[in-house]
Automatic annotation (TrEMBL), chains A, B:
Pfam families referenced in this protein's UniProt entry, alphabetically: DNA_pol3_beta, DNA_pol3_beta_2, DNA_pol3_beta_3
Stretches assigned to the DNA polymerase III beta sliding clamp central domain: 137-252
UniProt protein name: Beta sliding clamp
Positions of the DNA polymerase III beta sliding clamp N-terminal domain: 1-127
Role noted for this protein: Confers DNA tethering and processivity to DNA polymerases and other proteins. Acts as a clamp, forming a ring around DNA (a reaction catalyzed by the clamp-loading complex) which diffuses in an ATP-independent manner freely and bidirectionally along dsDNA. Initially characterized for its ability to contact the catalytic subunit of DNA polymerase III (Pol III), a complex, multichain enzyme responsible for most of the replicative synthesis in bacteria; Pol III exhibits 3'-5' exonuclease proofreading activity.
Occurrences of domain DNA polymerase III beta sliding clamp C-terminal (ranges): 255-375
Length: 377, 377
């Protein structure tokens, strides 16, 4: 392989595929980035075997030549060093030439590196996916859906399926669900589906979702999502993002979402968030317990750590309906939920001090958070 | 104590004194911030016994009332919680009232905290300093002097005196020196001295210098520096910064600075810095060894880690004089020095492959860096 490539284009591509490369892998070749030059493009690949990212740099973009291919071919270069080198090279163009024994000569301005590469033949092949289950969604909407759900996945390996985000698709309605069995986040959106595509029990690792969220541009261009038995592929322009799916059956979470309510209140999202942030400053036990009660049309929030002190908050509710309630919950769960709700007001529906309660934005029906209370009263 | 204080003024003062508070102290009361309200001001104090910071909030500033004192007095509040609480309080004013048993009531808007305080009588008193050895220096100049020297202090406790920065004052010339015995940084500046003040062997802990550098505003207002036998006090407006001095005799570093040179070169600071940054990417042994040689009026820089690869750099010198040289050194030492030199060009003076070499800006005589080479050739 022998190419001359535009530095900025290479830097961007290396940055993107590096996100899939882990330094803790047990497979030495996966510490590298694979480069493949054809006459049309240069393809970069990074992978930790769970997630793989592939980016192609076209030979030309907007009439500007990005790559000059002297000789086609492939090489795997150590990701950590290659990324740092590319970032610091002095000139606009970078010449990359594979010499004998995978030694790779990198030249830019008056700087020359010889980097020991690895044989690209030994790099694992990416899965070849049947593309019959495909739907489209704007990149920024997908980013929102992930941000608003994936924080709720379990971090414990005791129930591996809960470390993933459930993806469902029915009649064009895409729904993501995440739960760690103490709280749950659910978010839906209408998406573009060609055929009457129906998906259930597609469970994507939470870490994959977070990486995908980070790597996608915040733009309205649609991305295509391909689902197979054990893989998801997201196609965003010249970037391909692969993730394996989790094995197992995701629990039926719909049945734990209460359909009735004994107490309902509506409140400014930011005012409630700020009050709970302050209350959580003194909620220093392991469960970060904060108490909430309703008295005289006002929400009272309090917290207490005997050796440090107490806090008392009052927040005006717009609307309170139903029975009085005293309830205690983990402040972190409430903060996580309120922070991803972009709507100015939320409605909270309680069904008793020991039953899960539901938080929803007041301006649409596409998001729901559920939190299990803590027994203290 | 019972006061109502402007939130922004309190937030700023708490931020500043918090920098002296360590959570790792073995003296429980030092995990707190001391507040003292008089009729004229509210004084906040934080200390880790090495460094103490005191900030006073005046009753009024620019005709705006910052403090209303209902009752004078003192209290010590847990720094970690108090700082977080102040940052998050909702209203413009904060009411602080000490109740029984040092329980302190903090009220702002509809938020109320009760925080367990400690008896201010038990807080250590700050040293009372004789102010007969004083000089003045603009804050931003002092910041520069510290930034350009303190990185070179030793981090090893084997020679404790080298963990400090030496401060000398002679005929109005202030000089700071730091060395870890492998490299040395020296920086001077003319300062304002009323009498013929002469200071030698004043050694300030490197950590104190770094904290001072961070806390000083980047402005041209002068700060006063008071030196006693075992304390330094820096007065910057309403902020007082105390540091203990190190015991012991600082070594005579002047005698190791070579006065002659066998090879001299002049080069663009940034070009040399960039080349050594790149070379250091592959200088991965424990000593970060980079080699430098001069051939045909050009500086050649290289580095080699067999299992990863090699790098070769060329940098144009403006001027080369004297013998050819091949020398090896720790890239980190060179990077540290070049990064604090604000001048566009540096001059480097070598006296042989195994002798210390000197780096100076070409446009003034007030800064010098010295680096001991590494034996490899």
């Amino acid at each position: 392989m022998h190419i001359v490539v535009d530095r900025e284009a290479l830097k961007e591509a290396v940055n993107q595929v590096s996100k899939a490369v882990s330094s803790r892998t047990t497979i030495p070749i996966l510490t590298g980035i694979k480069l493949t030059a054809t006459h049309e493009e240069c393809i970069l690949t990074g992978s930790d075997s769970d997630i793989s990212i592939q980016v192609s740099i076209p030979a030309q973009r907007d009439d500007i030549e990005l790559i000059k291919v002297v000789k086609i071919g492939s090489i795997v270069l150590p990701a950590k060093y290659f990324a740092e080198i590319v970032k610091k090279l002095p000139a606009e163009h970078i010449e990359i030439e594979v010499l004998e024994n995978e030694v790779t000569h990198i030249r830019s301005g008056s700087t020359e590196f010889n980097l020991n590469g690895l044989n690209a033949e030994e790099y694992p092949r990416l899965p070849q996916l049947e593309e019959d289950q495909v739907f489209s969604i704007p990149a920024q909407l997908l980013k929102s859906l992930i941000r608003q759900t994936s924080f709720a996945v379990s971090t414990l390996e005791s129930r591996p399926i809960l470390t993933g985000v459930l993806l469902k698709l029915e009649e064009g309605l895409l729904t993501l669900v995440a739960t760690d069995s103490h709280r749950l986040a659910r978010r839906s959106a209408q998406v573009e589906v060609n055929h009457n595509l129906y998906l259930e029990n597609v469970v994507i690792p939470g870490r994959s979702m977070n990486e995908l969220q980070r790597i996608l541009e915040d733009e309205s261009d649609p991305v295509d999502i391909v689902i197979t038995n054990n893989q998801m592929l997201v196609k965003a322009g010249r970037l391909l993002f692969y993730s394996r799916l989790l094995d197992g059956t995701y629990p039926d979470t719909e049945r734990i979402i209460p359909s009735t309510s004994k107490t309902t209140l509506e409140v400014e999202t930011k005012a409630l968030l700020a009050a709970i942030e302050r209350a959580s400053l003194l909620a220093k036990d392991s469960k970060h317990v904060v108490k909430l009660s309703i008295q005289e049309e006002r929400i009272h929030i309090s917290s207490n750590t005997p050796e440090i002190g107490q806090v008392f908050e009052q927040v005006n509710a717009h609307h309170i309906e139903g029975e009085e309630i005293q309830i205690a919950f983990n402040a972190r769960f409430m903060l996580d939920a309120l922070r991803v709700i972009d709507s100015p007001q939320v409605s909270i529906q309680f069904t008793g001090a020991l039953s899960p309660f539901v938080i929803k934005p007041t301006d649409h029906e596409h998001m729901l958070h559920l939190i299990l209370p803590v027994r203290t009263y």
